[in-house]
Amino acid sequence: MEGGAASDQDWRSFLDIYQPLLFAHAKRRGLDPCQTQDVVQEILLGVSKRLPEFVYQPEKCRFRTWLFRVAERKVADHWRRQHRQLPESRPDAGDSIGTDREGEVADSSTLEPDAAWDAKFGEELLHKARKLAGRRASPMNFRLYLYHVVEGHDVTATVAAFCESHVTPAQVHLAKSRVLKLVEEELTRLCNQYGE
Q1: Which CATH class is domain 8-118?
Q2: How far is 32 from 77, CA to CA, in rounded Å?
C-alpha cells in the first residue's frame, strides 16, 4: 500500500484482501474464533492508525511481509497475555514460529511469511480480481465464467445449465476468454497496487 491518507474505498479494498488472510493466519496459530477476532481487530486497529503516515519502502520489505510480522507479534502477545505456550506446529503451518514458546519470537526483521500465508494472499488477490472483473463483464458472461471456470463444469454441462438462455458452446468459450482477460487485468493491477 502506498503512503498517505487512505480513502474509505482503499480501506475496503485493503480489508477485502488482508482481513481473510489475517483470520486464516490467527486460526493456524491456534487461536479459537473469539481470540482470532480479538487479535485481528487489534492488528487492523493498529494498521489503520499507522496508515496515514505509513510510507511503503519496497526495498526494505514487501507490505505483506511487514503485515505478517505484525500478525506474528500480535499472536505472540496474545499467548503471553494468556500465560500459555504457543501451540505446537501443525503440518500445514509451514516452519515459521509455531514451535516457539511464549515470548521467544524471533527478531521480527528475520521473520518471513510462510507458504500458507503466501498461498492465502494469492487466493485473496484472485478472489478480489474476480470480483472486480465481474463489475466490468456483462452479467451473462460473468455467470458463464463462474459456472464453467470457477465451479469447473465442462462446456456441455454449462450449455445444459443455461439452456433457457439458449447459450451455445461458442458463447461459453467467448465468455471464458473475455472474463479471463478482465481477471488477468485486475490481477495485474492488484499485484502492482500491493507491491507484488
Answers
A1: mainly alpha
A2: 15
Sole residue written with cell 500458507: 116
184, 196, 172, 193: which is closest to 132 by C-alpha? 184
**pTM here?**
0.70
Q: How far apart are alpha carbons 37 and 48 in whole angstroms?
A: 16
Q: How far is CA 121 from the centre of its chain?
A: 4
Task: Please count the other Cβ atoms lying within 10 Å of the Cβ belonging to residue 7.
Answer: 9
pLDDT in tens, 53-107: 777 777 777 888 888 988 998 988 888 887 655 555 444 443 333 333 333 344 4
The predicted-structure confidence for 140-166, as pLDDT tens digits, reads as follows 999 999 999 999 999 999 999 999 999
